[in-house]
């Protein structure tokens, strides 16, 4: 079998099983694991998969610049945001992540609800200027232009003084075994720190983020109390959430 044919077959298996293992691929194609690892490296370089220890997972399509992401699965993001906004109650302290789904959430916040928003997204903060009853606290830091959010170690001390009711967290990938991932190391650290300061973490995920992974782990599925998705989760994700008592909406 030619290398190009083998790579095509690997991608087909990945689409079917949502993960591949180097050892199993080696046995299937009767070649060394070194050769399989080379195939996976080359496919990863093309953005077609995400390498992990022992194999590979589907690559997330949600790591493009924010202006590009605005047009990806927009209807799916609107569906997720419409469910998420119903969780906000008067008087709560709510942390809202950056990202396109978070912007859809903020666009649906009623004008007559009084609560406090904590965010490290300048865009989210500005979107709430015309909500007279919403108190807005902005966490500063270095601006990560790709996602238009602030990041950096100085933020962690500020975050440690917050006790929030909810944290609406954006991710680029959700996978039963890889958990929640994103495309930047510092952004992953900030998301993890925010999650640790909320009574409940709600992960909002449009369709392209399901059964996908990016390079940096935010944490396991157990970080979330609720995951809101558009569409039906596969058996592996549903079973993983049920085992850890995570609500799927």
UniProtKB/TrEMBL annotation:
Assigned keywords, A-Z: Repressor, Transcription, Transcription regulation
Keyword 4Fe-4S among record annotations: no
Pfam families: DeoRC (PF00455), HTH_DeoR (PF08220)
SUPFAM superfamilies referenced in this protein's UniProt entry, alphabetically: NagB/RpiA/CoA transferase-like, Winged helix' DNA-binding domain
Matching InterPro entries: Carb_Metab_HTH_regulators, DeoR-like_C, DeoR_HTH, NagB/RpiA_transferase-like, WH-like_DNA-bd_sf, WH_DNA-bd_sf
Keyword Transcription regulation appears in the UniProt entry: yes
PROSITE patterns membership: HTH_DEOR_2
HTH deoR-type domain sequence ranges: 3-58
Classification via PANTHER family: GLYCEROL-3-PHOSPHATE REGULON REPRESSOR (PTHR30363:SF4), HTH-TYPE TRANSCRIPTIONAL REGULATOR SRLR-RELATED (PTHR30363)
Protein name: Glycerol-3-phosphate regulon repressor
Protein's organism: Pseudocitrobacter corydidari
Source species taxonomy: Bacteria, Pseudomonadati, Pseudomonadota, Gammaproteobacteria, Enterobacterales
Gene that specifies this protein: glpR_1
